[in-house]
Amino acid sequence: MKTFYTADHHLHHSGMELSFGKIVETFEKPERAEIILARVKEVGLGPVLTPQDYEIAPIKRIHTPDYVDFLKGVYEEWRAAGRDGEVWPYSWRHRSMPPIDKAPNGLDARLSYYSFDMAGSITATTWQAAKRAADTALAGADAVLGGERTAFSLCRPPGHHAGRDFFGGYCYLNNAAIAVQRFRDAGRSRVAVLDVDYHHGNGTQEIFYDRADVLVASMHGDPDFEFPFHLGYARERGEGAGEGFNLNYPLPSGTQWPEWSAAFEDACRRIAAFDAQALVVSLGVDTYKDDPISQFKLDSPHFSEIGARIAALSLPTLFVMEGGYAVGALGVNAVNVLTSFEQ
Ligand code: Q9C
Ligand code: ZN
């Protein structure tokens, strides 16, 4: 299996985050991608290739032009306002405030408009890193379109919390969604997304919610107790033409393999029935028992079972890296999925 990777991911590093009332080193740190890359090399998964520098057009198939301009330019605006450090939003529209559909003018109001949390900041080079993560997803999609059965896009920063015009949950551009659209634009008429990250992929859900050509299935911590909250309930089934093409499997805190794999099996069967021409896996391994920010109890061998079950779908499959924060086991867990897929 080819792995797509670029060291440009180092261009994004929010130093800190707020975790249960304490300022701590961010869990979404550059070391994550290096650990996964080291394991890819250790097991001899296959060649590690640098993605080309793509045009912006395939990113704008998913993200709005105003959001892309905002992400590119907001750090300079922050500096021009006389501020140091990283760009952080800090206040959001409460349910008591009427919705708006146009960005406000002021810097902080616009930052609020284009985000939903403060899991991660925007640094001087976050845009470049996010753009290269999207390139990494595109290169993986192009490898599969070129005839490879599978590919691994080692994206960082991750993407599944980013929507058409918002960032959050450590995500800025939705790498998996950009890859899905690449498959669609190359003529694959139906594409499935299997999101195995511990968190609900609210961005991916938002992007494809009204579409029947993209089936999105996600197993995750129940939004009643887990980030991103508010979205990810089973009742969210898609809307309009997309009704029935969004599948959520919210699961309780402490979920172990039998319960997780039952939901996963149901998702796999629904994907098989969808008759997809390509599959994009949002590969988060934060379901691991020792993940520092998650509450599921999967163990390292379970990730091998996940890879084998995905392989049994017999679909052209792109793996796109999402979350996973237990750095000691991160490489083993992510690469277990990939090696078992290939066996
Ligand atoms: N105290 C992904 O896995 N909240 N994003 C963490 C920790 C943000 C997870 C709070 C979690 C985002 C891609
Ligand atoms: Zn996650």
TrEMBL record:
Residues 28-337 form the Histone deacetylase domain. The keyword Hydrolase applies. One of its GO terms (biological process) is epigenetic regulation of gene expression. Coiled coil: none annotated. GO terms for molecular function: histone deacetylase activity; hydrolase activity; metal ion binding. InterPro entries: HDACs, His_deacetylse_dom, His_deacetylse_dom_sf, Ureohydrolase_dom_sf. This is Acetylpolyamine amidohydrolase.
